[in-house]
Specification:
Order of helices and strands: HHHHHEEEH
Number of strands: 3
Strand order of the largest sheet: 1-2-3
Number of helices: 6
Number of domains: 2
Strand content: 15-25%
Radius of gyration: 26 Å
Length: about 190
């Protein structure tokens, strides 16, 4: 029973750290976590546990670990002097499996300064009517983009491109790709 309670408390601590550090919840404080999860633990021991778990989460997040990497990392942490216990390892693994995607998105959003592309939809249409008869039955690419950040309202951009304009864009994108490839080979 004590193991189940300690696992539950550790899971709560990890979730609390994620809430305050990655999800931006200001209501979750270190004091709240201590009083709710570890009321019997002396403040200095709780602080050490909190800092250790925060450091482990930070290491896992910064490396964006997959299942094999986290298993190897936590095994090394259990063997390390002052590391984690064998009982804590599966709790941390479960936490990461449940929160990996959401924490990753949060870290990306926190590091973004400008608007980003939120969605992109495209289709090819054939014109059935036009002022100019030579444009009838010609194809056009319709591109719809949603641009913005998570906190602000999005802006929508709709482009209609004929075959010639589409080829120009594809050529420019190919040039950008070649430039990026050349830059990455230099380094």
């Amino acid at each position: 029973m004590a193991d189940a309670e300690s696992s539950k408390a550790l899971s709560g601590l990890l979730n609390g750290i994620a809430q305050s550090r990655y999800y931006g919840n200001p209501e979750i404080t270190e004091e709240l976590l201590k009083t709710e999860l570890y009321p019997e633990l002396p403040p200095n021991e709780f602080r050490a546990l909190h800092d250790k778990m925060q450091g482990i989460i930070k290491s896992i997040v910064s490396a964006d670990m997959d299942t094999n990497q986290i298993d190897a990392f936590l095994t090394a942490q259990t063997k390390k002097q002052g590391g984690i216990s064998a009982e804590q390892s599966p709790v941390i693994t479960k936490f990461w499996k449940n929160h990996k995607k959401k924490i990753r998105e949060s870290v990306i959003n926190q590091s973004r300064w400008e608007n980003g592309l939120k969605s992109l939809k495209w289709r090819i249409d054939v014109k059935s009517q036009s002022r100019h008869t030579d444009q009838v039955n010609s194809s056009a690419a319709i591109v719809e983009m949603e641009i913005g950040t998570k906190d602000k309202d999005s802006e929508f951009l709709c482009l209609e491109l004929n075959e010639m304009k589409m080829n120009e864009i594809l050529k420019k994108l190919s040039e950008v790709e070649e430039s990026l490839a050349a830059l990455t080979q230099i380094q």
